[in-house]
Specification:
This protein has about 500 residues and is of the alpha/beta class. About 40% of the residues lie in helices and about 15% in strands. The chain is built from 22 helices and 16 strands. Helix 6 packs parallel to helix 10 (about 195-210).
């Protein structure tokens, strides 16, 4: 029987040598005329173990990692005693304690083999959607409690219901895959490791609202994911998952991919639509909402990758299955991305309610440097900086908001006790100034004045007065900006001032 050897083709694994390891394994197989074949999978999300190589066995898949080219011959000669042997991958504590729903197949299947996808539960949701009335599909998504995983947490089903209720000859489904937040990589992992799940979710959305065309707008810094999605679309059309006769139903739905414009602001939904139409990525005023007048002025469902990817499970297993996971108004699971100065960085999928401490200390194992963790930033470059005193906060939309934070896209960046939070606050304002589309004055000018004022504070000039000025600028940014870029930039700045005030007065004390 042919032995299967699994080597990730995920961009993160490739960046640390996965392609070289795969070639070395191929050479050993050829030289020894072994009955073995290599399967290039996505990543399991344990990045400190990449490249993670897995061998089939009677008991399951046995992992080795991180594997170097120099380790490969010994994998075949002495696998049982190899120093990089990890045992059964499913029993690795980081993975075993997770609740993989959206990422159940990632790292397991061949991402471009439709039969492999279907064998592991794929297409079940779409087939049920094809046998369900559009209004009932929407209602199931509403009943599941699914909220947008892109940052705002707006109920997905309500957005779909709005688009479904508009009488129009043409509607669109748009996926926001412009994943630009610091410490985030879940969208990329899914597009590279389980692309048919995204395609299936978008096809279900098309059936629900009466759209026959969709677009996936992929971040320009993700060429690997862009190529993978392109291949997946070709396979999907050949397998009638897309096209004029979806799974033999007579229903039409097709998708195209577009490479992003390389600007953070294009992650904002209206700016993304402008870019998708071939225009400069600038924010549109609301109203009208994209659900009523979106892409090319037509009613449009726009969600991010993780939102669409949750839908097939809801249709396949029922709304109650998904709703019964989580807490409060935060239902289902959240793919949490752990990065920065952390020992075990990677992807953690758990139901809402796990604490920040469990994530950073339990899964992450503390800082990579071994020094005490001092702060985390949750929610990307516009997220709040939180001290360890807030680590017992449950991962939940409302719980985070109650303490001045946000979950955003689920990215967590860890900092040890060498971090200077005044510099981080300055970075937030500088980031806003650089990435602003320039449409509104508060964002364009307020952030620039904020950087200048932070420089004065860090030089020890009139620190108290200038901190007050920064607070005033943050109020203008929050209340006067057209979109979340300017509107949320105050969050990291004010949270750093609130929780780490000594970092702002340190230079003043030196100057005195």
């Amino acid at each position: 029987m042919t032995m299967r050897i699994y080597v990730p083709g995920d961009a993160a694994a490739v960046s640390v040598g996965a392609d070289d390891v795969a070639r070395a394994i191929e050479a050993v197989i050829a030289a020894g005329k072994r009955d073995a074949t290599i399967v290039r999978t996505g990543s399991r999300g344990m990045f400190w173990l990449e490249p993670l190589v897995e061998f089939d066995s009677a008991d399951g898949r046995v992992g080795f990692g991180p594997v170097k080219v120099s380790d490969v011959k010994a994998l075949f000669a002495a696998a049982a005693t190899h120093p990089r042997r990890l045992g059964l991958v499913e029993n690795i504590p980081f993975l075993k304690s997770q609740q993989r729903v959206t990422f159940a197949r990632c790292g397991i299947i061949d991402p471009l083999l439709l039969a492999d996808y279907e064998q592991h539960g794929g297409l079940k949701g779409l087939r049920r959607a094809l046998a369900t009335a559009p209004g009932d599909i929407v209602q199931q998504v509403i009943d599941s409690g699914l909220r947008g995983r892109g940052g705002a947490g707006f109920p997905t089903g309500i957005k779909w219901r709005t688009v479904a209720g508009v009488q129009n000859d043409r509607k669109y489904i748009v996926c926001n895959a412009d994943e630009g937040d610091s410490g985030t990589f879940a969208d990329r992992m899914l597009m590279e490791g389980d692309p048919f799940l995204l395609i299936e979710g978008m096809a279900i959305a098309g059936l629900a609202v009466g759209a026959t065309k969709g677009f996936i707008y992929i971040r320009s810094e993700y060429p690997h994911a862009f190529r993978q999605m392109g291949r997946a679309l070709d396979v999907a059309r050949a397998g009638k998952l897309l096209g004029p006769d979806v799974l033999g139903s007579g229903r039409t739905f097709d998708l195209e991919i577009r490479l992003g414009a390389g600007a953070y602001i294009c992650g904002e939904e209206t700016s993304l639509l402008e870019s998708l139409e071939g225009k400069r990525g600038q924010v549109r005023p609301k109203p009208p909402l994209p659900a009523l007048q979106g892409l090319f002025g037509q009613p449009t469902v726009i969600n991010n990758v993780l939102s669409f990817a949750a839908v097939p499970t809801i249709l396949a297993e029922g709304a109650a299955f998904y709703r019964d996971l989580g807490m409060g108004r935060s239902r289902g699971t959240m793919p949490i991305q752990l990065a920065g100065n952390v020992k075990h960085g990677g992807l953690i999928e758990r139901a809402f309610g796990i604490t920040l401490r469990d994530i950073v200390e339990g899964y992450g194992g503390g800082s990579f440097t071994g020094r005490p963790v001092r702060a985390v930033q949750v929610g990307g470059p516009l997220g709040a900086y939180w001290p360890t005193e807030l680590f017992d906060t449950p991962f939940d939309y409302e719980a985070f908001a109650a303490k001045g934070g946000m979950i955003g896209h689920g990215g967590i960046v860890v900092f040890d006790d060498t971090v200077d939070l005044a510099k981080q606050a300055r970075f937030a304002l500088e980031f806003c100034a650089i990435e602003s589309c320039g449409k509104c004055t508060p964002c364009r000018i307020g952030s620039t004045r904020g950087v200048e004022t932070m420089d004065k504070i860090m030089r020890g000039e009139r620190v108290v007065e200038n901190i007050d000025l920064v607070r005033d600028l943050c109020e203008v940014l929050r209340d006067g900006s057209l979109c979340a870029l300017g509107g949320l930039t105050p969050l990291p700045v004010l949270s750093a001032l609130e929780h780490f005030p000594d970092d702002f007065t340190r230079d003043a004390a030196k100057a005195a």
